[in-house]
Amino acid sequence: MIKNIVLDFGHGGIDENGNYTTNGKKHTFPNGETAYEGVINRRIGGMLRSFLRMLDDDYNIITTVDENDPRDLSLSYRVRVANQFPGSQTIFISIHNNAFNSKARGFEIYTTRGVTKSDALAESIANSIEPYYKDLSLKLRYDTTDGDKDKEAEFYVLRRTACPAVLVECLFFDNAEDYALLKDPEFVKEISWRMFEGIRNYLKAQ
Ligand SMILES: [Zn+2]
């Protein structure tokens, strides 16, 4: 029985002096505008948290860092937050956005390699996001060669957490069209809602 939902907002935010607390993880467009991944992650993650708080059952909703806290906390700290709860009663969702060559676009969701207890959570979130992304003609960057939609990578926060854990790359913040969506409050609300529904469906199936 899952009791604890740990949300992790990747990277840092903008501190009181107006400085981004993360090295890299930002992109400046030709028009001079800069996208900060950590700021976007907090915006989407904060919305997701507000939806999760509406769950009827008394789930314990935890964030590794508050969306208004600009600190870029270490990966080991983020994992410790999750691992203070029993792995069998907890799920961990890390919110990120991608960057590559300013041309790549779309959605990815990661688990560790092989068949894992995280696969069902990843599949449920992907299934919930899929129709919305199809409506927007957004790319779903799945790896279905192993029979499921998640991609697999040994990210620290996935490898070291004891509970089912997924890492979501919502869109590419270094792509102008994806970034326009990431700035759109309607998109932020909808993708957060879709993630919420994916999590809720997963919880119902437990
Ligand atoms: Zn990231």
Describe the structure.
- It is a single chain.
- The protein has 206 residues and is an alpha/beta fold.
- Helices cover 35% and strands 19% of the residues.
- A six-stranded mixed sheet has the order 4-1-5-8-6-7, with helices on both faces.
- The relative contact order is 0.21.
- The model has no long low-confidence stretch (mean pLDDT 97).
- The protein binds zinc ion.
- The site of zinc ion (ZN) has 5 residues, from loops.
Short description:
With about 210 residues, this protein is of the alpha/beta class. The protein has one domain: Zn-dependent exopeptidases (Aminopeptidase, 3-Layer(aba) Sandwich), CATH 3.40.630.
Number of domains: 1
Identify the bound ligands: zinc ion
Strand order in space, largest sheet: 4-1-5-8-6-7
Can you identify the CATH superfamily?
Zn-dependent exopeptidases
CATH architecture name:
3-Layer(aba) Sandwich
In percent, how helical is the residue content?
25-40%
Distance between the termini: 7 Å
How do the helices and strands follow one another from N- to C-terminus? EEEHEHEEHEHEHH
**How many strands in all?**
8
Q: What is the CA-based Rg, rounded?
A: 16 Å
Major pleated sheet: 6 strands, mixed
CATH class: Alpha Beta
Q: What is the general shape?
A: globular
How much β-strand is present in the residues?
15-25%
**How many DSSP helices?**
6
- Could you say which structural class the secondary elements and strand pairing correspond to? alpha/beta
What's the CATH topology label? Aminopeptidase
